[in-house]
Recover the amino acids of this structure.
């Protein structure tokens, strides 16, 4: 009895079916082939079974025509999850404490990393009419332009722009009529700088490019429109390499004791009073400055600092755009970090601190918020870079605060800090990144007449390797946790209107992607709406841009291509557009 | 010197011999997994989509698979087997997910914030798979389904298939043979059920007394 197609074959028919199936996967032995052919010749149903195997195989192989494409951000999500594990397990100095930390914050971060699935845009964007419902396409939110720094195949760098006239509905990257056109491109006289940060000046007349990484690097200024006379400086200096002038004697307030090491506490007073930039009064100081003067390139590009290592990713222009501040330390490892300020009328950046243990936090008008550890206590002071006078402030216990619009709220680190891996700086340890309001509003950032009793007392039990960063005591609203530690670094920006705040946090190695979120800010209190983030944990490289109605960030990809995502809103419309800008591209923020 | 050895596996074996296997280079593991991801993410994701028929869930599990690969980096003895090894991890991840569904009923992994509208790709997949074949694939045991997908769509060789399924070559071949027969029967059952359904629908739509009559021609 031969089997019907829907019956289980048995006996010889079963053997025939097995062999008919098996021969699809591998050649049968000659003896088996001969037996099968003979059996099939005499068994109609078995021939049908064998034919069905062939048909089923063809059906299955037809599925190859439909190849599911992974989400574009899949590597970013995976990398972020791995980075969390990677960082959690890394037995390096910066993370050594993690093994003794409760795992909950790490797990929470891992969940967050896993959770930003196909869409990280929350549907509750307050500017849209439908709270996440699709919008008609395309969406008119006004044109926009993104400037990028691009590395060409020949190793040259260029500044170029990409313009878009309209954006697509949320959740899509392509919509009818959406266009992105290439704007001007200009090669600049700089070779491949590796990992860089780039800042467009508020006046949009030049770009500061900071080389990053642990190798000796530099900071450059590139005019957006080439200077007609080839120099932005009133006092051009001899070219580098000139024995007599390639390095100038220190004109900055460099410490006479350049012996700070990773094992030493900073010894300088937080009220050190560096001289105004340009004054050369360091007769007792044999240590050359990390800055040198150089001859501008033909298009006006100058190097405002070299042989330094830029520390962290917090750098900024002053509000009037006349100065740019960053943190760096000498590449030779002779000292720890100081804050450098570049006056746009000069040809070099100059250190404005001298304790070799200062970190730039933010600008408050034309003064700097400087965070440092003094006698085991994290302290933030207000430094006038012109006079060099640093004064304590009421909010001085916040670590690296980034004040929001109106200076009445800020984001700061609430927890402990530990020595960075290079031993020179400080990085967040356990704790959290918080948003809070100052106890006395903007007055908290005014110089205070702090009595000794007001100064936080170091915890005598605290390890020298970790320092608590106490938060201001009173607040108009409860502290809001933006991210749990440990973090490698963070960046915070508010849009000019103060309506939104973007927060980027990173846990992995330098240069690895982090997570970007966007929050609506309550105009009455300054608190962030954390319950419904407008953008939640989008994979992003640091160096995002938040302007009026525009959030732009660089998206990690597996192919190495550089992709920028733009979230744009205007009135009741919101949309997004994705810009492919080629490999090796850095967003100019 | 470990780094002088050209072969990754040799270095790893040497490490094991030196009893320092718990101290493997995590940067090396990261780079290795990053490279694996670049090479195989598409096929691993596609395999999980085909097994689970849920692109978003498949993306989550693809991520999970590569994180597991990172964790298990030291367990890979031969880098040339990485593809099959990766499929083995993905296969286990998929089976875990399917077993979990059986135990607790399926609950979406994501909250309300995720866009639940089906993607175009999902619709295409559904359209292509919504017929007899997908239903038949759904009816056969998961391991058999996996064997068929891996062999016929993902082109795993016999050795790779055995590694991915975590069985011997002989067992993998037997599993695949059983899977072909299971699919044949399942397809036959599906087609029979479809014929029955069509026959009963035709009967219902026949003009006659009762409310259904109006379906035939409303004025």
């Amino acid at each position: 009895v031969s089997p019907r197609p829907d019956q289980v074959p048995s006996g010889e028919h079963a053997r025939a079916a097995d062999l008919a199936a098996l021969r699809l996967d591998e050649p049968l032995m000659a003896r088996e082939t001969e037996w099968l052919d003979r059996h099939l010749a005499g068994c109609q149903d078995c021939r049908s079974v064998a034919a069905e195997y062939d048909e089923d195989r063809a059906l299955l192989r037809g599925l190859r025509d439909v190849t599911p494409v992974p989400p574009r951000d899949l590597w970013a999500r995976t990398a972020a999850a791995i980075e969390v594990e990677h960082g959690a397990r890394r037995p390096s100095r910066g993370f050594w404490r993690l093994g003794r930390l409760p795992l909950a914050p790490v797990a929470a971060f891992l969940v967050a990393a896993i959770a930003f699935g196909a869409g990280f845009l929350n549907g509750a964007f307050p500017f849209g009419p439908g709270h996440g419902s699709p919008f008609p396409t395309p969406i008119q939110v006004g044109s926009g332009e993104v400037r990028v720094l691009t590395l060409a195949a020949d190793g040259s760098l260029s500044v170029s722009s990409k313009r878009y006239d309209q954006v697509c509905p949320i959740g899509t990257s392509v919509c009818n009529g959406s266009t992105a056109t290439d704007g001007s491109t200009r090669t600049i006289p700089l070779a491949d700088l590796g990992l860089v940060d780039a800042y467009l000046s508020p006046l949009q007349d030049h770009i500061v490019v900071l080389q990053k990484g642990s190798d000796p690097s530099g900071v450059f200024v590139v005019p957006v429109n080439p200077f007609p006379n080839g120099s932005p400086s009133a006092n051009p200096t001899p070219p580098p390499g000139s024995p007599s002038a390639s390095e100038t004697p220190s004109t900055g307030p460099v410490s006479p004791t350049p012996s700070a090491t990773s094992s030493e506490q900073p010894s300088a007073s937080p009220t050190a009073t560096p001289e105004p930039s340009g004054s050369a009064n360091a007769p007792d100081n044999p240590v050359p400055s990390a800055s040198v003067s150089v001859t501008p390139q033909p298009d006006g590009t100058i190097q405002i600092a070299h042989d330094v290592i830029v520390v962290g990713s917090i750098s900024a222009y002053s509000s009037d755009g006349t100065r740019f501040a960053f943190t760096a330390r000498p590449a030779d490892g002779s000292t720890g970090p100081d804050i450098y300020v570049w006056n746009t009328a000069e040809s070099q950046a100059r250190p404005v601190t001298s304790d070799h243990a200062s970190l730039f936090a933010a600008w408050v008008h034309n003064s700097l918020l400087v965070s440092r550890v003094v006698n085991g206590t994290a302290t933030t002071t207000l430094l006038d870079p012109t006079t060099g006078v640093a004064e304590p402030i009421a909010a001085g216990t916040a670590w690296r605060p980034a004040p929001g619009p109106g200076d009445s709220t800020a984001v700061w680190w609430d927890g402990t800090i530990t020595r960075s891996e290079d031993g020179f700086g400080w990085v967040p340890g356990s704790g959290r990144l918080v948003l809070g309001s100052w106890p006395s509003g903007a007055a908290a950032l005014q110089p205070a007449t702090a009595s000794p009793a007001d100064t936080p007392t170091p915890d005598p039990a605290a390890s020298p390797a970790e320092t608590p960063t106490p938060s201001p005591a009173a607040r108009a609203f409860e502290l809001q946790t933006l991210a749990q530690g440990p973090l490698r670094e963070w960046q915070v920006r508010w849009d000019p209107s103060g309506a939104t705040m973007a927060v980027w946090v990173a846990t992995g190695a330098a240069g690895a992607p982090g997570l970007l979120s966007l929050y609506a800010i309550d105009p009455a209190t300054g608190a962030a709406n954390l319950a419904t983030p407008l953008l939640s944990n989008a994979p992003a490289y640091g160096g995002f841009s938040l302007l009026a109605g525009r959030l732009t960030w660089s998206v990690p990809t597996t192919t190495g291509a550089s992709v920028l995502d733009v979230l744009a809103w205007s009135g009741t419309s919101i949309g997004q557009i994705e810009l492919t800008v080629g490999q090796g591209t850095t967003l100019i923020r | 010197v470990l780094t002088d050895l050209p072969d990754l596996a040799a270095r790893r074996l040497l490490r094991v011999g030196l009893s320092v296997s718990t101290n493997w280079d995590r940067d090396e593991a990261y780079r290795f997994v990053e490279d694996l991801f670049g090479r195989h993410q598409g096929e691993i994701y596609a395999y999980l989509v085909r097994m689970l028929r849920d692109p978003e869930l498949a993306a989550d599990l693809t991520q999970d698979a590569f994180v597991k690969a990172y964790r298990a980096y030291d367990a890979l003895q031969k880098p040339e087997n990485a593809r099959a090894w990766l499929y083995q991890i993905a296969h286990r991840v998929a089976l875990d997910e399917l077993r979990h569904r059986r135990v607790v009923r399926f609950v979406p992994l994501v909250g309300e914030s995720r866009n639940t509208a089906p993607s175009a790709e999902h619709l295409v997949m559904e359209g292509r798979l919504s017929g007899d074949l997908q239903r038949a694939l759904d009816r056969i045991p998961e391991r058999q389904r996996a064997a068929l997908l891996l062999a016929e769509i993902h082109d795993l060789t016999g050795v790779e298939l055995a590694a991915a399924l975590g069985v011997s070559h002989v067992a993998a071949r037997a599993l695949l043979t059983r899977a072909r027969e299971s699919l044949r029967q399942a397809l036959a059952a599906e087609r029979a059920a479809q014929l029955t359904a069509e026959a009963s629908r035709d009967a219902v739509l026949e003009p006659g007394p009762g409310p259904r009559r109006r379906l035939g021609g409303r004025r």
Summary: Chain B touches chain A through 54 residues (CB under 8 Å). The longest helix of chain B spans residues 169-205. Chain B is about 70% helix and 0% strand. The radius of gyration of chain B is 23 Å.
